Amino acid sequence: MWERFGGVCVCFLFAGSSLAQLIAPGAAIPRTSKPPVVFVDGYQQSCPGSFNGTFGIADQLLQSNGEASVFFDNCTVSGSAKPAIETLGAAFGTFLAGLKYTDGTAVSAVDVVAHSMGGLIVRSYLSGKQTTPEKFNPPASPLIRKAIFIATPNFGTGLASTVLGAGVSDAQLQEMASGSLFLFDLGTWNQDSDDLRGIEAIAVAGNGGTGLATTPGFDDGVVALTSASLGFYATDRTRVVPYCHIPGGGLITLAGLCGPNAVGIANLTSSTHETAQIMVSFLNGDATWQRVGTAAEQDHFLSTNGGLIVEARTSNDAFMPVTSVTAQSSAQTKNLNVTSAGTAYTDMFAAGPFTLTATTVAFTYTGSANLPATVYAALIAKPGPLIARVFPAANSTFPLNVAPGEAIAIYGSNLAASTVPATSFPLTTQLSDAQVLVNGAAIPLYYVSAGQINAVMPAVSGLVQLTVQNSVGSHTVNVLIAPAVPEIFTQNGSGTGAGSVQRYPGYTLVTANNPLQPGDYAIIYLTGLGGLTPTVTIGGVSCPVAYAGPAAIYPGLDQINCQVPAGIAPSNTASLVVSAGTRGDAVSIAVQ
């Protein structure tokens, strides 16, 4: 068996194991009570790939757990010898769409286990990454329920472009090289970040390498912990285990990257293998995986460090190659590695506030930033306006979507020269010196300031480009539109706690001293219904909806009227839940 990652051929023998548990390519999948699990392998030197060569007896472990296993061998993708990862991601989407159960019905959801480059294939599919830089066409409804990323070089590996990839012309190695434009695009496709479309995901990262690739205890022989971490997606979602990128032996040991007896992080040899325990537990939906290995937040290195990948742009958002980048904190000063493409990166930098200085042939930018521990952050160094996030006006939300017609809040820096609220209706498309464009068309504004703009998203769909432009420049981010993203306004404006709900008759604010009573109408103010019909529950009891739609006068504001039923347990903090489409939001409410 030959397997290769980052330019190294690793020759080793496996104990024989039956493939009987694995669904044959193209065969129908037996329906069980759990979604089928699709395994995605990583970089291959020689094709075809081997399920057992990468994942060991994972199929047998899952069969005993009541799950069918399917293998996406990226070698089967037609095209050049090493097609770009974007091409593999598109082929993976086609593969998922073609899966059928034995009764002939389409598989509507799968779980995914991906090793190494396989995780980048999955992320490329979720984002709809195109081979054209900065272009994306994300699937409307991803077919993935849960994903496990094993030793995925989310922000690359230095070995792909140095020792292991030296002199090799290979699209996949080039894209996996630390600091590549592909990795920066993948990490910034949705609001200059990657939320993995909100699927439930975890990462398994290894620290069983010798440290020759980076630092002892900081890599699996190929991928650094910062790169393998899912800290960019969520906290408490990365487990560190004492394994190597692949089993020891062969050239990976001769190269000094892992010891001869190193255990492969994805090569599951028994149910006691730590990755196997994590896989079975996570797919079962229990918490055992949270006690296997070490949490990233408790790891010696990840608990105090993160990583950086930096791209510079002009004030009008045009890419500008960097000539040098320096990050300086109270703990350290570090000159980042500069790639031939003009980006910069580092795999280990002290978490916390720091100053970033990026020099280009046209300008030098200096600004402050904060790096959370465990996170590999993709940063844009640019003067002028900079958008940090676009949320529904009522609250922050995850995953990062807004709905058509929704009132939105745009947060960032240098967004407008002065603070100006709207003073009349209909709303204007310019306040102070600021405009907001969606796909090139100006949209109505409620309020602008240097740090926040409130506006109304038009009736659009899919992935749109949102631009803030003013007298000192512009910045554009992609924003993914979902059919509905309901968010209920709250009394304290924080998005949590007591909802902004009126009681009818009387149109009085619902409080502990003025609770809802059976027969009352609850008038709920929110945004993001997107024209869909919502459902409402209070204290777990259905509240029949009498009206749902736009609130009078105020663009982007929605209103729901529902009649409070009998049978709700009295409480000052009953849960009021509004659901529309696949999304929902909850606040507390007083009920008598």
Would you mind describing this structure in some detail?
This protein has 592 residues and is mainly β. The protein folds into four domains: 2-6 and 28-295, Rossmann fold (3-Layer(aba) Sandwich); 305-381, Sandwich (Immunoglobulin-like); 386-481, Immunoglobulins (Immunoglobulin-like), CATH 2.60.40.10; 487-591, Sandwich (Immunoglobulin-like). It is built from nine helices and 38 strands. The strands form eight sheets. The chain has a seven-stranded mixed sheet with strand order 4-3-5-6-7-8-9, with helices on both faces. Strands 29, 30, 31, 32, 35 and 36 form a six-stranded antiparallel sheet that branches. Strand 35 (545-550) and strand 36 form a beta hairpin. Helix 3 (85-97) crosses helix 4 (117-127). The radius of gyration is 26 Å and the shape is globular. It starts with a strand and ends with a strand. Mean pLDDT is 93; it is low at 1-20.
Q: Give the % helix.
A: 10-25%
Radius of gyration in whole Å, from Cα?
A: 26 Å
What spatial order of strands do you see in the largest sheet?
Answer: 4-3-5-6-7-8-9
* CATH homologous group name of the largest domain: Alpha/Beta hydrolase fold, catalytic domain
Uncertain segments are 1-20
Major sheet size, sense and barrel closure: 7 strands, mixed
